[in-house]
Amino acid sequence: MSADRALLVDWGWASTGAAWIDPALWLLWLVAHGHTCDQAERAAAAHPAWELAPTEGLNALARVQRRLWDSIAAESTDDWATPVQEAARSWEEHRR
Q: Comparing C-alpha atoms, which of 10, 26, 34 is closest to residue 61?
């Protein structure tokens, strides 16, 4: 944190990749907590790297996230993953 900005670092699944992937993953959490997919994508678009996101890349990421969160929710012993699973399904349908 500084006087004019804050930086968010998510080390949960640290990896390298295109910079647009982070805002794309954040949007799932926005949808999981009540935003529409359109609203969440507009919020993601505030990140400068979003302009570099290829349509087919976003579509593929949406498909992969749905499969990932379906798997996580199936293996979970409680319902913590269900909202994100539902968000991932909604986003994949939105991207079709």
A: 26
Per-residue pLDDT of the chain (96 residues; tens, 9 = 90+): 788 888 776 666 667 789 999 999 999 999 999 999 999 999 999 999 999 999 999 999 999 999 999 999 999 988 999 999 999 999 999 999
Domains: count for the chain: 1
DSSP string, 34-48: T--HHHHHHHHTTSG
Q: At what angle do helices 21-32 and 82-95 cross, to 10 degrees?
A: 120
79 part of a folded domain: yes
Give residues with Cβ within 8 angstroms of 84, minimum separation 6: 28, 29, 32, 69, 72, 73
Q: Residue 71: which domain range?
A: 22-46+54-95
